[in-house]
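On clarity, I found the account of how folds are encoded harder to follow than it need be. For illustration, here is how one protein appears when written out as sequence plus structure tokens.
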Amino acid sequence: MPEITLSLLEHRADVVVLTEWRKHTGGQIRGVLADHGLRHQHDTDPGRNSNGVLVASRHSIRIAGGDEGFMGLGGGGPAGLASHRKAQKRRMVEAWVPDLQLTVIGVHVPPDGMNGTPGAGRESVFRAAVEAARRNRDGGCILIGDLNAGRHYLDEEGATFSCTRLLGELASMGYEDAWRRANSSLREYSWFSHEGKGFRIDHALVSRALSPRVKACWYSHNEREQGLSDHSMMVLELAAASVNS
């Protein structure tokens, strides 16, 4: 935990999104981030031994909440998704950062289950993230986190990802893969399986309005290579919002 915290501080981020965050082990990270200026924080209140999402910011944040405000699913959402509302609320944060003119949707989509079939809540969480992105597509919006998905034969060697049609929906709304826009057909992986197979599953997707503000997007592999995490860190650098935005 101390090494992860130091690594986060070294990147000097204005907003940090942590996935697979657990309260009983991550409290130290949360406290140190607050001590170093990232004091505006919100977590998804995961139960003990459950993964959640933490957002920490140097600027004040406003969180979408309530059934009507949570990802537009209203009284249960599409058929088959209502039973996974706990997974949705535990695995996603929708935060508005007024000072940065920015909406940050931090998400951890569950991985596939056995034999490549969607795991419990996977479709629901992914769909909820898409709906949040749809609501915010006309402004500056980032959908960022572990999607456990990517493009076949490009973000993986084969074609094992499920729910890829939802990535297509995001693209149809004008969202752009911030890393891919600068790297075209390059392959770079953010996570490796126990068999040593690489996958690019951690993404930053930016709305059409935000795309001109993207200055750089890259993976910091040091944290994974040093064994601090099994994922590489995604770093996104944006230009400041214009006065009239």
